[in-house]
C-alpha cells in the first residue's frame, strides 16, 4: 500500500516545493541579509572583526539600524580606522545600532529605546519619516530570519538619552576623540 502512495506523495511534495515563495525557502540571518542587500559592506566587516557578527547570526530577534557604506564614508576614514583598531570599542559602537526585538518601520514607537550596548537611542516618527538620534532611516524593513534591518545615513556614536545636549551636538563632540 505504501508503495502505491509513494509516486503520489512525491508529486505532492514537488508541487509544494515549487509553490513555496523563495523568500521563505531562502531566509537568512541578519549578517547574510545585510550582505545580500549590498550596501552594508563596511558594517559587516566591522561586525566580523569585533565579534558582533556572532550575535547577529545566531541571536535575536533584533532590529538593526545599520549605517550604509556611504554613511560610514561620511563619518570619516581616519575615525573609522581608529575605531577598528579598538575591537571592544567597535563592538560597543555596533551594538548601539541594535535593539532587542523585531520592529518593522510601521511599528517603531517614538521615544527612547535601549540598545544591546545598554545605551539609549531616541527614535522619532513623523509623517512616515523615521529618525534614529541624528540619523535618518533611508531604507526600511529588510527582513531576516532573526530580525529586521533599517538602513540609516549616520553612524550612531553616542548615547542619546543620558545628556541634555541635542543628539547631533553630542555626536560631534564624541567624534573629536577619534580625530
Written description of the protein model:
With 179 residues, this protein is α+β, with helices and mostly antiparallel strands. The chain has a single domain, classed as FAS1 domain. Helices cover 45% and strands 22% of the residues. The protein has 9 helices and 7 strands. The chain has helices spanning 2-19, 22-25, 30-37, 41-50, 52-58, 69-75, 77-85, 87-95, 167-175, and strands at residues 62-67, 98-100, 111-114, 120-126, 129-132, 135-144, 147-152. Strands 2-1-7-6-5-4-3 form a 7-stranded mixed sheet. The longest helix is centred in the first third of the chain and has 18 residues, at 2-19. The protein is globular and about 40 Å long. Residues 12-26 and 162-179 have low confidence and may be disordered.
Strand elements, count:
7
The N- and C-terminal alpha carbons lie at a distance of 76 Å
User: How big a fraction of the residues is strand?
Assistant: 15-25%
Mean pLDDT: 80
What is the rounded Rg? Answer: 20 Å
Backbone shape: globular
CATH superfamily: FAS1 domain
Number of domains: 1
Major beta sheet summary: 7 strands, mixed
Q: Give the ordered list of helices and strands.
A: HHHHHEHHHEEEEEEH
Distinct helical segment count: 9
CATH domain fold name: FAS1 domain
The portion of residues assigned to helices is 40-55%
Low-confidence stretches: 12-26, 162-179
Strand order of the largest sheet: 2-1-7-6-5-4-3
CATH architect. name: Roll
Name of the CATH class: Mainly Beta
Structural class: alpha+beta
Amino acid at each position: 500500500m505504501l508503495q502505491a502512495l509513494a509516486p503520489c506523495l512525491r508529486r505532492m511534495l514537488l508541487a509544494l516545493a515549487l509553490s513555496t515563495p523563495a523568500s521563505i525557502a531562502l531566509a537568512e540571518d541578519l549578517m547574510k541579509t545585510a550582505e545580500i542587500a549590498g550596501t552594508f559592506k563596511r558594517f559587516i566587516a566591522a561586525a566580523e572583526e569585533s565579534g558582533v557578527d556572532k550575535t547577529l547570526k545566531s541571536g535575536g530577534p533584533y532590529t538593526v539600524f545599520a549605517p550604509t557604506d556611504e554613511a560610514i564614508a561620511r563619518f570619516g576614514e581616519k575615525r573609522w580606522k581608529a575605531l577598528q583598531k579598538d575591537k571592544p570599542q567597535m563592538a560597543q559602537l555596533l551594538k548601539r545600532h541594535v535593539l532587542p526585538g523585531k520592529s518593522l518601520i510601521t511599528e517603531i514607537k517614538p521615544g527612547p529605546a535601549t540598545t544591546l550596548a545598554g545605551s539609549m537611542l531616541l527614535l522619532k516618527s513623523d509623517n512616515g519619516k523615521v529618525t534614529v538620534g541624528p540619523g535618518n532611516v533611508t531604507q526600511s524593513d529588510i527582513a531576516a530570519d532573526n530580525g529586521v534591518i533599517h538602513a540609516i545615513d549616520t553612524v550612531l556614536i553616542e548615547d542619546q538619552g543620558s545628556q541634555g545636549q541635542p543628539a547631533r551636538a553630542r555626536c560631534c563632540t564624541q567624534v573629536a576623540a577619534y580625530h
